[in-house]
Amino acid sequence: MMDIFWEIHDGLPQQGPGDDASTGRAFALVPPLPECAAILDVGCGPGRQTVALAVLTGGTVTAVDTHQPFLDELKRRGRAAGVGDRIRTVNRSMSELDFPANTFDLIWSEGAVYLMGFREGLTSWRRFLKPGKCLAVSEITWLTDNPPAEVRDFWAEGYPPMKTVEQNFLVINECGYSLLGHFILPESSWWDGYYRPIEDRLRGLRAKYATDPAALEMINGEQQEIDLFRAYPDSYGYVFYVMRRRT
User: Fold this and answer.
1) What are 18-46's pLDDT values in tens digits?
2) Which residue in 5, 46, 61, 236 has the fewest CB atoms around it within 10 Å?
3) 133 has which bridge partners?
4) What is the CATH number of the domain that holds 67?
């Protein structure tokens, strides 16, 4: 089944909702960084935002992911953008990071902290961040207290810990951070580089695996997620949270 998953996801522009404009908007909430800032991008995927961070900051970005083809694609993108010498890739689980304490001037994670859980990621990564420095993450978030039953049931299985914006504010404070700002990613950030390319791919894969029930189940599951967002974009979305580590 994982072969089908990667056949769906490998080679996409990105592995979750996001865009360079949203990356730039979140970065604008971060106080000025040192000239040679040390930055950590956790769950970088193929690295659209990694390259953007290298361009925006002039710093050195350490990009972490467990899928080597993503890291290889990131290296190619970095070279093409002229920032390859300032991007370092590390193949490692985000739950097994072993950097020295107080290493980074900025920690970034777009569409990936859910793999650990919002609270778990904020707690685990805090020690790698220098006191007073910033963590920026985008997290799938309820935008209503009363989502339709179809949406609630889907995400109760897909991501049970999903919280509202206000609940995440409390988590941020409890984990030792001060919130600097937040915003909801636009719907276009779901479609342009993520859902539309997946839908295009699903059409071909549905024909290729027409006689394979297990493959079709995964393909249809991906389509269900896309159709759900198409129908209920006001019920949930990705929210960027930018926060500062309290000393």
Assistant:
1) 999 999 999 999 999 999 999 999 999 99
2) 5
3) none
4) 3.40.50.150
Q: Would you say residue 1 lies in a domain?
A: no
Among the listed residues 43, 40, 39, 41, the one whose alpha carbon sits nearest the alpha carbon of residue 15: 43
Within 13 Å and on the Cβ side, how many CA atoms surround 25?
17
Q: Which tens digits make up the pLDDT trace of 69-114? A: 999 999 999 999 999 999 999 999 999 999 999 999 999 999 999 9
What's the per-residue H, E or C state across the chain?
Answer: CHHHHHHHHCCCCCCCCCCHHHHHHHHCCCCCCCCCCEEEEECCCCCHHHHHHHHHHCCEEEEEECCHHHHHHHHHHHHHHCCHHHEEEEECCHHHCCCCCCCEEEEEEECCHHHCCHHHHHHHHHHHEEEEEEEEEEEEEECCCCCCHHHHHHHHHHCCCCCEHHHHHHHHHHCCEEEEEEEECCCHHHHHHHHHHHHHHHHHHHHHCCCCHHHHHHHHHHHHHHHHHHHCCCCEEEEEEEEEECC
**Range(s) of the domain holding residue 66:** 14-186+233-245
Number of domains in the chain: 1
Residue indicated by tokens 């997946």: 198
Domain-embedded: residue 120? yes
Give the global pTM. Answer: 0.95
